[in-house]
Amino acid sequence: MEIPWASGFAPVQKRKNVKALHEAAAKRGFTPLLEISTKSDVVVGQHLSAFHLKIQSKAGPLPLESVYQGSKVFEQGGPYTDIYDFDARTAKRDGRLRDSGRLIRFEFDGHSFPLVPPTVFYDWLYLTAIYPHREWLKERIIVQERFAGFTDIEFNPSKSINCQARSCALFVALIERELLDEAMTSPEVFIKTVKTEDHSSTAKENENRLAL
User: Fold this and answer.
1) Containing H/E element for 139?
2) E strand spans, the chain
3) How far is 143 from 147, CA to CA, in rounded Å?
4) Close Cβ partners of 71 (under 8 Å, ≥ 6 residues apart)
5) In 11, 26, 55, 112, which residue has its Cα 20 to 30 A from 76's Cα atom?
């Protein structure tokens, strides 16, 4: 969808773009939408931002982004679990993530995650973080306000394949198919469930983006 773009990094500019995107989507019949980021003007959208989410691990609560980055396994190193203790911004900038060769998998808490489906590890982390709050979230994004979709104004497809809005949509899809509780019993069951539910065209598109 084409929208007038308000350039700049100030929150007010980001919110202008969110408003423009939601207005464009409404003209196509997609409304209401919920922005999933710190720039959301709805409290639940801010709470769902991955920037604020924590992963409960054996070592205690850890920032989602730091776990994602520190769990990467490359041809020449990793996982770099010391990154778990970094804040999200520092974790993403760690030089080892660029200097260790090709990414081959993820490892976290004794489990191995494949690169296909490309977003499966990020999705697992995101849903793991929000799963304890599933009833509260269900009430607010499915029962009280039936959102037609989710957006993330921070997502840049040229730099990342992971999108917190997509992960939130997956959360809703699994609830509506009554698959959430079963899917979250283990990473292996989750991976199998997502592979089964994912459309082949979407999977192929994601594989191509991952290759880039």
Assistant:
1) none
2) 33-35, 54-57, 60-63, 72-74, 103-108, 111-113, 149-151
3) 9
4) 78, 79, 81, 106, 107, 108, 113, 121
5) 55
Return d(Cα 209, Cα 212) in angstroms, integer: 5
Mean pLDDT per 10-residue run, the chain (212 residues)? 92 96 96 96 94 87 95 97 94 96 96 95 98 95 94 93 96 96 97 77 50 44
- 85-104 pLDDT per residue, tens: 999 889 999 999 999 999 99
Residues 6 or more apart whose Cβ sits within 8 Å of residue 114: 105, 120, 191
Closest by Cα among 63, 45, 46 to 54: 63
The single residue listed with the structure tokens 């698959």 is: 179
CA distance 60 to 55: 8
Structure tokens at 58: 């054996």
Q: Which amino acid is at 85?
A: D
Contacts of 122 (CB under 8 A, 6+ apart): 68, 162, 167
Domain ranges for the chain, please list them: 43-212
Place of tokens 């084409």: 2
Between CA 161 and CA 208 the distance in angstroms is: 10
Using DSSP bridges, classify how beta strands 149-151 and 72-74 pair: parallel, antiparallel or unpaired: unpaired
Rounded distance, CA 12 to CA 16, Å? Answer: 6
Closest to 141 measured CA to CA, from 36, 53, 37, 50: 36
Q: Which amino acid, one-letter code, is at 187?
A: P
Neighbours of 54 (CB within 10 A): 14
